[in-house]
Write a structure and sequence with these properties.
Structural class: alpha+beta
Strand order of the largest sheet: 7-6-3-2-1-12-11-10-9-8
Oligomer: single chain
Strand content: 35-45%
Largest sheet: 10 strands, antiparallel
Distance between the termini: 37 Å
Number of strands: 15
Radius of gyration: 21 Å
Number of helices: 6
Order of helices and strands: HHHHEEEEEEEEEEEEHHEEE
Number of domains: 1
Amino acid sequence: MSCAAAFSLPNMNNHQNYKKYRTKHDHDTFESFVTMRTGIDLNNHLTTESKTETNRKEAECPAPGSSEAVYWVGEGQLYESPSGKIIANIEGFDVSKGVFMDQNHIRQFSRKIFWFRDPNTNELLTEYNGQPVQPIKYDWQVFDLKRGYNPNDPSMAPILPSVVKGPRSVPCMPVTPRYAGSDVIHYQCPLFIDIETPKGTYQAWEIYDYTLDLTHDANRPPSLSWSRQGSNPPFIQDGMGVMHFLGHRLDSFEELPEQIRTLVEEEYSLFQDPPMDMEEVHQLEQETMMRTPSNNGSVNGVNKANGRSTISSGSRQ
């Protein structure tokens, strides 16, 4: 196949095939997303009155993809923009769990952390041009995920996220599902930030793309692609940067790469598990408020050197 053909628009016959893929499933895209993202099994939370015989049988064994907690791990690069120079490699993970609110509403409890590594040696960066380098970490994040509605195609309803508790509250756009063939579904999660902080304007955009194999083949776990453009991390005094990160889902801390497990066990033990509940989140929030400014020159999440937020990844999925 020529390059021109590979990137050409589909003809009408192909278009009909794509449409068939979208409509041949009576798939619950909300259930698939929250189970993929948080591990929650919605079948276990159906009321006795609403359970059919099929529901009862399904509830006797875990739904595909369900887990007590999920770990989204991966790696990528931090690029200087617009030159494209690789400033650092990045690696890290998010750990999450889902809490049932009702059949159309799941609460996600998460933490995430990632580290910067030398792009040539891949050694952990502790200093860059005389500035200390710290991992970007969120001790807690809490989101609500609610079922949306698509009047043209109810099977493709969006998921409606919102921030309950996090480093900062930002507007969250709907998560959009799309089929890619008969057994693969993509979820696109965009985020655009334009807010005022005590030290200036913070602007960035991020897009998270999740891919789920509906056959739940263990050799093809759910995957994630994340892209971000915005102000650089605090160890870089100024300028804009681009981050790109590729990851996939795991179901236990023990499955994480050894170098990440070692870092967490030795220095960041909080990140072995997601937050337990809102009580823990409130306690961590109070502890954070009582801390003195850290040695990386940031106060209240804003870099004093350039007036920009120290948050290098957004407060989204």
